[in-house]
């Protein structure tokens, strides 16, 4: 299993991951995503801008994420804990329900943090739906600090904003702690 940059030919596989995640979350009464977000236009833009990565296992699409420097306008309301000079932002991290519970999301976060460290990002930021306890626990267990919350026009409950400081020295120490 290796992460590869998403290409146009991967669009249907990515959309399959997302549609299955939506169905699964709704079955758990988590109304984080819907038919409007994330949609095929958003994913196509991720592909065109070369900001997306997919993880495949034996040819089957099992995970998807977009990472870039684009911060939502709502992020300006947050008192972030780092200077934010060079920020990497996680968008749409998703693992096909059939592959959940196998450490795939943790593998994705390690990959993202490696990308951030290798490219001298000062921190990683993201927002997570406050109604998705599994996602919140994942980020908190992985050392992301909750620094505030934002509301998006299309949701009634807040999204929590998380941040993790990234620099080569601190990152190496954190990886050692996670390995213990």
Largest sheet: 7 strands, mixed
Percentage of residues in helical conformation: 25-40%
The number of helical segments is 5
Global mean pLDDT: 92
Pfam families: Acetyltransf_1
Keywords: Acyltransferase, Transferase
Organism: Clostridium estertheticum subsp. estertheticum
GO molecular function, one term: acyltransferase activity, transferring groups other than amino-acyl groups
Describe it.
With 180 residues, this protein is an alpha+beta fold. It has one domain (3-179): Aminopeptidase (3-Layer(aba) Sandwich), CATH 3.40.630.30. It is built from five helices and seven strands. It has helices spanning 11-27, 40-48, 104-118, 133-141, 168-179; strands at residues 3-5, 52-57, 60-68, 87-95, 123-129, 145-150, 159-165. The chain has a seven-stranded mixed β-sheet with strand order 1-2-3-4-5-7-6. Strand 4, helix 3 and strand 5 form a beta-alpha-beta unit. It is globular, with a radius of gyration of 16 Å. Residues 168-173 have low confidence and may be disordered.
């Amino acid at each position: 299993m290796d992460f590869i940059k998403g290409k146009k030919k991967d669009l249907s596989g990515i959309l399959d991951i997302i549609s299955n995640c939506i169905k699964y979350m709704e079955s758990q009464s988590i109304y984080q995503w819907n038919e409007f977000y994330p949609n095929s236009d958003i994913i196509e833009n991720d592909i065109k801008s070369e900001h997306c990565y997919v993880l495949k296992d034996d040819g089957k699409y099992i995970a998807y994420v977009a990472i870039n420097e684009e911060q939502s306008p709502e992020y300006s309301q947050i008192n972030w804990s780092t200077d934010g000079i060079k920020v990497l932002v996680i968008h749409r991290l998703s693992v096909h329900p059939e592959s959940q519970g196998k450490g795939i999301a943790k593998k994705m976060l390690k990959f993202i943090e490696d990308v951030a460290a290798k490219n001298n990002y000062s921190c990683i930021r993201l927002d997570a739906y406050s109604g998705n306890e599994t996602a919140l626990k994942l980020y908190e267990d992985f050392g992301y600090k909750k620094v505030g919350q934002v509301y998006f026009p299309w949701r009634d409950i807040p999204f929590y904003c998380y941040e993790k400081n990234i620099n080569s020295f601190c990152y190496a120490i954190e990886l050692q702690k996670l390995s213990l």
